[in-house]
Write a structure and sequence with these properties.
heterodimer; A: 350 residues; alpha+beta; Rossmann fold; D-amino Acid Aminotransferase, Chain A, domain 1; 6-stranded antiparallel sheet; 4-stranded parallel sheet; 12 helices; B: 3 helices
C-alpha cells in the first residue's frame, strides 16, 4: 500500500528526565503503515533534545510561549505553515492546549487539522474542579481544594477535613506529598514559583498508582486504551519504567468515562487502586502522555490513530494489546555541533 | 482453592500478575505447587504428593505449605 504523505507539527520535544510526549508521539507516527510523515518540531527552548534528533524530526521552529498570548503563537504557526504546509498539529503540553483549542477553527481555515478535546471537556476535568467532575460522572475522586495562600496550612487541620499527609499540586504540573505544615508550605512555594496560582490540595489516597492511556473519537467511542503501572519512578514522580496491565476493571472504567464525556482526543487517566480494589481518579491529562510509545509497542499505535481521526479517516477501535509489555527509559548523550545550536538560537529554525 | 485467571507462570517459574503488574521468581517447588493448584488439587492432596516425592517431615511440610498458601492468598494470587 502506498503511504499517504502528511506533514505534522509536533510540540513537546523536551525528551528530558520529565519528558514531554513529543518524541514518543513522533516515533508512533514514524512507524505508521498508513502515513509517510514529515515531522516539523515546534520547540519553546533551544535545548529541547528532540530538535537535534534529525532521524525523528525533519525541521524545527521555535514558537513563543503561550504566556505571550494566543495571537503571537498563531502568527508564528501561520508563518511556519506558509513554509511547511502543515496537515496536522499535535500539541503535547497541558499549558499550551488552551491556546490551540481556542485557535482550532483558525488553524483549520489554513488547512491545519487538530484533534483536541472540546473546551468544556478540557475545563471540567481540571484538578481544581475534579470533585465536581467525579460527582457528575459518578467516579470516585479524592477530596480536593483550591488555595491561594500558604497561610491556609496553619489552620487546615482545624478548619477543614484534610489531614496530613496531603498532596500539594500545581494547576498543570508538579505534585508533592506533604506530611506537615512545613513540608506543605515548601511544596506550595516550589509550585507557585514555577507554575503560579492556584495551588490544589488533594486528599492522599493510599494504594497503587495505575494509569491508562486512551483515545476517544469525540462520539463516545474508545478507539484505544492501555493500562500501565509504573515500575520505576524518578524523584520527579515520572515513570522510568512501566508495564502494561490486563486490568479489565480499569478498561471498563475508562470506556464508561469516554462514553459519558464523549472525550475527543488523547488522554491519560491517573488512578489509585486501593487495597479494597476501589479506583480513585486523581487526575486526567488531556493529551497523550510521555509513555505513549508503550501503547505503540503493545499493539495500539495511538498517535497514528489520532492523526487519522484528525484528518477525517475512519478508525476502527483497537480490540487488543499485549499484556506484560514493559518500557524502560534511558538517557543518551546527543553530540551537537555548535553551528546547529547557533542556527536555532539566531534564526529560530533548524 | 483457585489460582486467579490473571496469573501467568512461565516454565522457568516466573510468575506475572497481569492485574497488578507484580512479578515473582518461584523456586521449583513453589512453581510445582501453583501447577497443582491449577489442576484444582486440594491443599491436602498437594501435601500428600510432596510428602511422597521429597525427603521432608510432615511437620515441616505442613508449616511450609501453609505459609506459602497464606502468602499466595495475601498477594491475591489464589482465592
Amino acid at each position: 500500500m502506498k503511504k499517504r504523505k502528511i506533514t505534522v507539527g509536533v510540540t513537546g520535544l523536551n525528551n528530558i528526565d520529565s519528558p514531554g510526549p513529543g518524541i514518543p508521539v513522533i516515533r508512533g507516527l514514524r512507524e505508521s503503515e498508513f502515513f509517510d510523515v514529515r515531522i516539523i518540531g515546534l520547540a519553546y527552548e533551544n535545548l529541547e533534545p528532540g530538535i537535534y534528533m534529525h532521524d525523528l524530526v525533519d525541521k524545527t521552529y521555535q514558537i513563543p510561549y503561550p504566556a505571550l498570548g494566543s495571537d503571537a503563537l498563531m502568527k508564528r504557526i501561520e508563518y511556519i505553515n506558509s513554509k511547511e504546509n502543515l496537515d496536522l498539529l499535535i500539541p503535547n503540553f497541558d499549558a499550551e492546549l488552551y491556546s490551540f483549542m481556542k485557535a482550532a477553527d483558525r488553524l483549520k481555515k489554513i488547512g491545519i487539522h487538530t484533534f483536541l478535546p472540546e473546551m468544556k471537556q478540557f475545563e471540567e476535568r481540571h484538578k481544581a474542579v475534579l470533585p465536581e467532575f467525579g460527582k457528575k460522572y459518578k467516579i470516585k475522586v479524592p477530596e480536593s481544594k483550591t488555595i491561594l495562600t500558604d497561610k491556609y496550612f496553619e489552620k487546615m487541620e482545624d478548619e477543614d477535613d484534610f489531614k496530613y499527609p496531603v498532596l500539594v499540586k500545581g494547576k498543570y504540573y508538579d505534585a508533592y506529598v506533604a506530611h506537615n505544615d512545613e513540608q506543605a508550605k515548601t511544596a506550595f512555594h516550589k509550585i507557585y514559583a514555577k507554575w503560579g496560582l492556584p495551588i490544589i490540595i488533594q486528599e492522599y489516597v493510599r494504594g497503587t498508582e495505575v494509569n491508562v492511556i486512551a483515545l476517544g473519537d469525540g462520539e463516545g467511542n474508545t478507539i484505544g486504551a492501555v493500562p500501565m503501572r509504573k515500575q520505576y519512578i524518578t524523584d520527579k514522580g515520572k515513570a522510568w519504567a512501566g508495564i502494561t496491565l490486563g486490568d479489565t476493571n480499569l478498561l471498563s472504567l475508562t470506556k464508561k468515562l469516554i462514553k459519558k464525556t464523549k472525550w475527543r482526543g488523547g488522554m491519560e487517566l491517573e488512578m489509585i487502586k486501593t487495597e479494597d480494589d476501589e479506583y480513585y481518579l486523581i487526575e486526567i491529562n488531556p493529551r497523550l502522555p510521555a509513555w505513549v510509545y508503550l501503547a505503540v509497542g503493545a499493539g495500539q499505535n495511538l498517535p497514528e490513530a489520532l492523526a487519522k481521526l484528525a484528518l477525517g479517516i475512519e478508525v476502527k477501535p483497537f480490540k487488543k494489546y499485549d499484556v506484560g509489555k514493559l518500557f524502560i527509559r534511558y538517557s543518551y548523550d546527543l553530540i551537537v555541533n555548535l553551528s546547529e545550536f547557533e542556527k536555532l538560537t539566531l534564526y529560530s529554525e533548524l | 482453592m483457585k489460582v486467579n485467571k490473571n496469573i501467568a507462570v512461565s516454565e522457568s517459574g516466573f510468575l506475572f500478575d497481569s492485574m497488578s503488574g507484580d512479578s515473582y521468581s518461584l523456586n521449583p517447588i513453589a512453581a510445582e505447587i501453583i501447577g497443582m493448584l491449577r489442576e484444582q488439587k486440594s491443599v491436602e492432596d498437594i501435601k500428600k504428593t510432596l510428602l511422597e516425592k521429597y525427603e521432608v517431615t510432615q511437620t515441616v511440610l505442613d508449616k511450609s505449605v501453609d505459609e506459602y498458601i497464606f502468602t499466595l492468598k495475601k498477594l491475591n494470587i489464589v482465592k
